[in-house]
Every structure is written in structure tokens, then in C-alpha cells.
């Protein structure tokens, strides 16, 4: 038979996973949104990031049972692939923000966008910064 301890052990593991996610990579999206956007665009960025985050959780919770049925014990390989792709995207496309001002970060984004596109719309943004 099955030991009566396993359901409780399973719940402890689920709570441990949720706690470790919340204390670890779960909070990165908020920190990254704070570091990448200036004060004027930050509220919109938080709304978009939060909506995408919760919609992703909803989508995963709806699709995961079907992934388990289809892939059985290999169901987490889907998440390994997605996490690897996101890590690669962040490594190559998101600039380092340590010890940089918002203006420097935005200039890095603008210079990377200019390198990718050969056409310009002619609309330039001038950012003024004052030291306090």
C-alpha cells in the first residue's frame, strides 16, 4: 500500500517550491522592471509585466495537466526549454544595470535598437538628468 505520509510530503514540497520561487526568481521581474524603466514609464511597465506574469501563471495552470498526460515523467522538460530560452534572451539582449543610471540604461536600449534597425523615424527623445 501507499504510506499515509506521502500526501503530506507532497504538500510540503509544493509549499517549499512556491516559497523558494517567491523568494528567488519570482521577485526578479519586479526588480528588473524598476531598473529598466524611468519614472514616467514605470507604472505602465508594471501593469504590463504584472499582467503578463499572471496570465502566464494562468496559462501554465490550465495547460500543465495536458502536458503531464502527454509527456508523463518528462513533463518538466518543457519548462527546462522555456527557462533556457528566457535565460539566453536575458543574457544577450537585456543590458547590465548595476551602477548605471536610468539614462545610461535607456541609451543602451536605444543604441541596441539602432543597430538592429537601419531606418529611423526621426523622433528623438532627449533626457535631462540633474545630479542631486
Q: Overview of this structure, please?
A:
There is one protein chain. The protein is an all-alpha fold and 132 residues long. It is built from five helices and no strands. It has helices spanning 6-23, 28-36, 42-71, 77-93, 102-116. Helix 2 (28-36) runs antiparallel to helix 3. Residues 118-123 and 125-130 have low confidence and may be disordered. Keywords: Membrane, Transmembrane, Transmembrane helix. The chain crosses the membrane at residues 6-32, 44-68, 74-94. Residues 1-98 form the Major facilitator superfamily (MFS) profile domain. It holds the Pfam family Sugar_tr. It is a multi-pass membrane protein.
Order of helices and strands: HHHHH
User: Judging from the principal axes of the Cα atoms, what is the shape?
Assistant: elongated
Number of strands: 0
Largest sheet features: none
Report strand %: under 5%
Helix content: 55-70%
From the N-terminal CA to the C-terminal CA, the straight-line distance is 70 Å
Main location: membrane
Keywords: Membrane, Transmembrane, Transmembrane helix
Transmembrane segments: 6-32, 44-68, 74-94
Subcellular location: Membrane
